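Continuing from yesterday's entry. The apo prediction looked reasonable, so today I'm repeating it with 2-acetamido-2-deoxy-beta-D-glucopyranose included to see how the binding region is handled. Same sequence as before; SMILES copied from the compound registry.
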Amino acid sequence: MISVPIGEPSFFIFHLVLVLLTIFFCFLGSASASAEEAAVLFKWKASISNPDNLLLTSWSLQQNSSLCSWYGVSCINGSVNRLNLSDSNINGTLYNFPFSSLPNLEYIDMGNNELWGSIPPQIGNLSKLIYLDLQGGALSNEIPREIGLLKNLHALHLNRNNLNGSIPEEIGQLRFLNDLALAANNLDGPIPASFDVGRRLLFYWNIKTD
Ligand SMILES: *[C@@H]1O[C@H](CO)[C@@H](O)[C@H](O)[C@H]1NC(C)=O
Ligand SMILES: *[C@@H]1O[C@H](CO)[C@@H](O)[C@H](O)[C@H]1NC(C)=O
Ligand SMILES: *[C@@H]1O[C@H](CO)[C@@H](O)[C@H](O)[C@H]1NC(C)=O
Ligand SMILES: *[C@@H]1O[C@H](CO)[C@@H](O)[C@H](O)[C@H]1NC(C)=O
Ligand SMILES: *[C@@H]1O[C@H](CO)[C@@H](O)[C@H](O)[C@H]1NC(C)=O
Ligand SMILES: CC(=O)N[C@H]1CO[C@H](CO)[C@@H](O)[C@@H]1O
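Holo prediction written out below.
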């Protein structure tokens, strides 16, 4: 007969099991989060005009490939925190970019590629975004007003594209923004009144403020 221990030892074992289960589910949680983020980023890669881009070879859903070691991807706790695809010869649009599925993304650097089409309004879903660089592409149409939802944004570089229309009023409400580059587009109209007077010209002329 096996005697089941009662009293303190079983209490201890109960707690041990609880701790182990917690660790297990945390691990499982972050593993499934990264599997989902890998799947949506892979889908975006498949949507670009040159998914065979050699720099993106590591972007694979094979078992031996892990999201956090993909080219240009940096993670915190298994979730994508930084995406740096600057100067990577990417020809494509942002229409399939998983803006709603990368909740921990803080830095996007996709400058100096062949990005075209418009900037989707879903960009406003990246609520933790601090840094957004889409300069040096062929992005067209207007800057979406949803950019004003990126409350943590410090730097916004959209210079050297084909953006048109007026600068959305909402940009003036981004209180941490101190580095705005909009030069070399087809933007027109006045600087929105929402920009505070001290920062106006500096912003317009694309100079960093502090
Ligand atoms: C980018 O892809 C489009 C569509 O496939 C193609 O027409 C265009 O020439 C490409 N641009 C460059 C610079 O390769
Ligand atoms: C993963 O496996 C595939 C197919 O077996 C192989 O071609 C690729 O080089 C491997 N990648 C890594 C990062 O080991
Ligand atoms: C990573 O996850 C652990 C456990 O959930 C948490 O305590 C820690 O603050 C997280 N680290 C960051 C940088 O978010
Ligand atoms: C992205 O990588 C380039 C080249 O390594 C580097 O110059 C740039 O500062 C990086 N951008 C960010 C936001 O880390
Ligand atoms: C911006 O450009 C697009 C096409 O490139 C055009 O349809 C649209 O009318 C332009 N918008 C403004 C405000 O000029
Ligand atoms: C999940 C989420 O925040 N979705 C939003 C993404 O952005 C679009 C366009 O702004 C909204 O309509 C969604 O509600």
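Comparison notes:
- The chain has two helices and eleven strands.
- The CA atoms of residues 84 and 109 lie 5 Å apart.
Will overlay with the apo model tomorrow.
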